[in-house]
Amino acid sequence: MKRLHWLRVAVSIAVLWVIFTKIPLRAVGDVLGKVTPLPLFFAFLFYLCGQTLSAYKWRLLAAPLGFQRRFRDYLSYYFIGMYFNLFLPTNVGGDVGRGYYLAAENKQWTLAYYSILAERASGTLALFLVASLGILVSGGASLPLWISWGTGLATVALFGCLPAVPALLKVLRARVRILSPYIREEMTLYWKTPDLLVRALLLSALFHLLLVLIHFLIGRAMGLQLPVSSYLVTAPLTGLAAFLPVSFNGIGIREAAYIFFLGSFGAGPAVAFSFGILWLAVVVAASLLGGGAFLLKRREKFPTTESRPDA
């Protein structure tokens, strides 16, 4: 595991080194020196709104699994997970942290992590949906055909496979012994309440549209005059590239993705790389708020089953 960690660090360093051989640091400094603070501040506020929306969606998905917590608890756990992501090699580390806090009271670890998996899965579906919308709106002329067609086909495939998930879980439980203890009947609840599934997908789509707005605001802060359709493509696909577990927390891969996608719409390499720096700054600033939530949570004692009011 440690070797894999250092491999991801090496990938991030290697990609950044290649970028810096192509882009003079002075050019990046010139771009950042012309940034207008106000749109960047609004981008930060909308990012906080997006994470709050995600915490609310997580609460909706966790409630049918037996987790009855206050919304402020979910919000606290969500920001703690964001804070953990600053130091852990992948976003999965933050998910482990918030799953731990959610299940700390009733010890239902499998269901807690399933709620997080469901939250992530609904977000991924919406990500591909928004990206496909962006490609349709922009005509996809600026992108390679394999990205345009690949995104569209992946979107159709993911939504097409969605109704078959309960049957797949049943097969896995019966035939894969190593997984059978972790596949619970409660995992099919979302398909028994399709209105909840639709609400989660709509909230996920709204979240990704907020990310598009944040990208638009960062572009405005930099003085970019790119069409909104360019951000409909760039925001979700760059997020997908950064989520791949091949670098340290997406560093390097994310910046390279910005150079590629924004470059496809006419932005220069220095501008696109600076865009990536500003996006990272917004994320880090918001995630640091989770550090305060983490310190407060450490002072609390989790209630035992005997002390719960509904026991």
Automatic annotation (TrEMBL):
Transmembrane ranges, per UniProt, are 6-25, 37-56, 76-103, 124-147, 153-172, 196-218, 224-244, 278-296
Location comes to: Cell membrane
Q: Taxonomically, which superkingdom?
A: Bacteria
The cross-references to InterPro entries, in alphabetical order and at most eight, read: L-PG_synthase/AglD (IPR022791)
Keywords per UniProt: Cell membrane, Membrane, Transmembrane, Transmembrane helix
Write down the membrane topology. Multi-pass membrane protein
Q: Which Pfam families match?
A: LPG_synthase_TM
Instruction: Give the CC-aspect GO terms.
Output: plasma membrane
Q: Output this protein's name.
A: Flippase-like domain-containing protein
